[in-house]
Amino acid sequence: MSSTTPLLDVSGLTKHFPIKGGFPIRRTVGHVQAVDGLDFQVNEGESLGLVGESGCGKSTTGRLITRLLEPTAGKISYQGKDITHANRKQLAPVRSEIQMIFQDPYASLNPRHTVGKIIAGPMEINDINPAGGREKRVRELLEIVGLNPEHYNRFPHEFSGGQRQRIGVARALALEPKLIVADEPVSALDVSIQAQVVNLLQKVQQELGIAFLFIAHDLAVVRHFSQRVAVMYLGKIVEIADRDDLYENPRHPYTRALLSAVPEATADDTPARERIRLKGDVPSPINPPSGCRFRTRCWKATDKCASEAPPLVQVEGNKPGHLTACHYPETHEATTAPVLSKEPVA
Ligand SMILES: Nc1ncnc2c1ncn2[C@@H]1O[C@H](COP(=O)(O)OP(=O)(O)OP(=O)(O)O)[C@@H](O)[C@H]1O
Ligand code: SF4
Ligand SMILES: [Mg+2]
């Protein structure tokens, strides 16, 4: 692999779930367009944040990349190798290098297995025997994630939520992965615990050089964790940029609306952002709006937005690598969006 090849390269990635209906013969009567043509890369050791409202396709994207789901279309390359439709055997060497951490630390750990068995699970499945044995490695991993190695024989219910998520992190690290897809890894945890787990993941990313696709609902969590951020809306990436470009110069109206809800996004020396009120609900991914999918909630939508889907490109004024899918990108000037308040967002 040359140094310019991204670790993960995704192009045109699409997942349409068929909807079955009809009687007596069940036929496909439509599709949920959960993910619809994503293009993005993750470089070695970097963290890409993937952000968007509930139902926009974040988990589906994570499950496609880890190949828990079969893509409908598009291409996934890992270290330059096409793994889009790789079978079990072809995937085996890659499986250990791409791991997933799930949102719910309660549901993702087998309650009948000891912590030792859970963390050693991936080593067993992949028939990996580290020097010194699996138990020694598990104890090391417990230490790395800040748990007591002596708790090797305890069961998940004996741990708190934050500790259980640490167990999930230890399990993901067992095979020395190069990429971890973390699907809302802290949103099920108490706010007071969230920062601790984010810090642990940050340590893992920096010290072990592991790349992350970090999935989150809002822009607050990824701000401290991801060097680059992609914003999704209804199955599409609407904006992607280096973190600072995105937070300081959001060009897509949806990014701007999301950012207006993040209190800490406002630097001390700049006036507080006005909180933008989006009208209506997210449309159904079964029958998304024509043209720009955001147009039913956008305060700037025109006929062009209804007829032409805006491509994800480096619009005028964007730095290299900052791509925006909008016909009328935002500028720094005051927005005409309906605002909730001019007060600093509490
Ligand atoms: N197995 C499935 N069959 C049919 N539809 C599905 C399936 N999995 C997900 N979907 C639909 O695909 C869309 C995207 O779901 P997904 O779980 O990827 O969203 P998400 O962004 O992770 O949301 P959340 O923030 O709530 O976790 C939703 O409309 C969801 O209902
Ligand atoms: S393309 Fe049109 S509808 Fe879509 S975000 Fe831009 S201005 Fe709004
Ligand atoms: Mg999800």
Automatic annotation (TrEMBL):
Belongs to the ABC transporter superfamily. PANTHER family: D,D-DIPEPTIDE TRANSPORT ATP-BINDING PROTEIN DDPF-RELATED, TRANSPORT ATP-BINDING PROTEIN. The keyword Nucleotide-binding applies. Keywords: ATP-binding, Nucleotide-binding, Transport. InterPro entries: AAA+_ATPase (IPR003593), ABC_transp_ATP-bind (IPR050319), ABC_transporter-like_ATP-bd (IPR003439), ABC_transporter-like_CS (IPR017871), Oligopep_ABC_C (IPR013563), P-loop_NTPase (IPR027417). SUPFAM superfamilies: P-loop containing nucleoside triphosphate hydrolases. Pfam families: ABC_tran, oligo_HPY. Residues 8-259 form the ABC transporter domain. It comes from the Bacteria. GO terms for molecular function: ATP binding. The keyword Hydrolase does not apply. This is Dipeptide ABC transporter ATP-binding protein.
